[in-house]
Amino acid sequence: MALVVPFVDTCVYIGQAVGALILGLVEGIDDRDHNAEAQFTQNMCDQLRAACPSKNILIIHTAYTADFTNEQQAHVECPITWPRTQGYTCVGFDAGTFQLHGDGGFENYCYNGNYTNHGGGSVTFYPIDLVATPPPTPTVQLPPPPPPQSPSHPADGVYLVNSLKAGRWSSGLAYYKQMRRSGGNDGQQPDAYVDIKTDGTVTWEGGVQRGVFPDGDRFSTWLGAAADVAGVETFRQVGWAANAYRAMGVYKDRVRVLYEVGGWAVYTVYYCT
Question: CA-based, 20 to 30 A from 249: which of 28, 78, 216, 238?
Fold first, then answer.
């Protein structure tokens, strides 16, 4: 017989079925102590990912720190040797960083989704819909600014922009087939543009933003919550972006008017390449 603490479903994206899912998994565990705990975390993690395909999943018992976007949690008890139980936190989220402080092993934690494991209990999670998982990122110090790009071989890229017209603000993505940093695109109209928000500016930092260009290309960005704080150098990498073709870094830009169109002054805030 399993002792189960009633499950409070705070994970609204999981829905009512999760309570039954967790109960079923717990009832099915009949091994002892560490074997039972390891089985519980792995089974729970895999099945919650299947139930919530748009979310990264973390199941954890031990100490940790994390910075997750759109984080939602629930608590569940895993029965081990009767009448003892082990408490676990079930976390669903879009993206973020994670650092383990306690003991490792499946009996203490398990995760699933779109991530890079840096070793030492450090993990970076990316939005599930990023097609290409970006390469590892240092967990404490952000990568240095990208090297200067040769003007004879420019790559394509996207500016994250906020636009102003007669007191009205909007935000969007401006795509350039030839991306020239350090003001090289100033005054040039983009090759494609999509609005993200038309009744104000979005908060680019600390979350995921998505847009679909006129050709159907889907583009997603994820910036750290501290991307715009004082002390973050211009041209420093502050996040990731991706479309169906490749992953890109997101870099802090020098805020300025990138171009003007139809009475709008379009300000660059970040750029992706």
Answer: 216
Give the Cα separation of 252 and 229 in Å (integer): 11
Contacts of 145 (CB under 8 A, 6+ apart): 233, 235, 236, 237, 251
pTM: 0.54
Whether the CB-CB separation of 129 and 219 falls below 8 Å is answered with: no
Provide the residue type at 83 as one letter: P
Instruction: Write the CB contacts of 216 (distance below 8 Å, at least 6 apart in sequence).
Output: none
The candidate with the shortest Cα–Cα distance to 35, out of 91, 95, 87, 80, is 80
Q: What is the pLDDT of residues 134-159, one digit of tens each?
A: 444 444 444 454 444 433 335 899 99
Alpha-carbon distance of 248 to 273, in angstroms, equals 5
Residue pLDDT, tens place only, 158-206? 999 999 999 999 999 999 999 887 678 999 999 999 999 999 999 999 8
Query: Residue 131 pLDDT > 60, yes or no?
Result: no
Question: Pairing relation of β-strands 95-100 and 122-125?
Answer: antiparallel
Which position has the token pair 């990912």?
A: 49
Distance separating the N- and C-terminal Cα atoms of the chain: 56
pLDDT: is 240 or 176 the higher one? 176
Give the whole-angstrom CA distance, residue 160 versus residue 268: 6
> Which helix (H) or strand (E) is 45 found in, with range?
helix 33-51
- Closest C-alpha among 219, 232, 230, 217 to residue 161: 219
